[in-house]
Design brief:
Elements (H helix, E strand, L loop, with lengths): L11 H5 L9 E5 L5 E5 L7 H11 L15 H12 L4
Antiparallel strand pairs: 1-2
Length: 89
């Protein structure tokens, strides 16, 4: 019986993928009073990303029953926090 060919060595990306953080992008949001929060891309345990997605559905930017991944982007979250808090810039 022939033996199976050896598996190719894992590529650098495959070897290191598991070491990547669960978020892709991070940054700080600073309000007009100088308070700051770390903002990371991805889902939020407080549901912020789902609230953003629902808002995008409500204003007709995306179809109902879809989840726009842009709701999990740092830039979108910062814009949302500005909108919710009434910060202009």
């Amino acid at each position: 019986m022939p033996t199976a060919a050896p598996l190719p060595a894992a590529t650098w990306v495959e070897r290191h993928r598991g070491q990547l953080p669960s978020y892709v992008t991070s940054g700080f949001y600073r309000d007009e009073d100088g308070h700051s929060d770390l903002v990371q891309s991805g889902g939020e345990s407080n549901g912020e990303d789902r609230a953003i997605a629902q808002h995008l559905v409500d204003i007709g930017r995306v179809r109902p029953r879809t989840f726009p991944t842009t709701a999990q982007h740092v830039e979108t979250k910062v814009g949302w926090r500005m909108r919710v808090s009434g910060v202009a810039r």
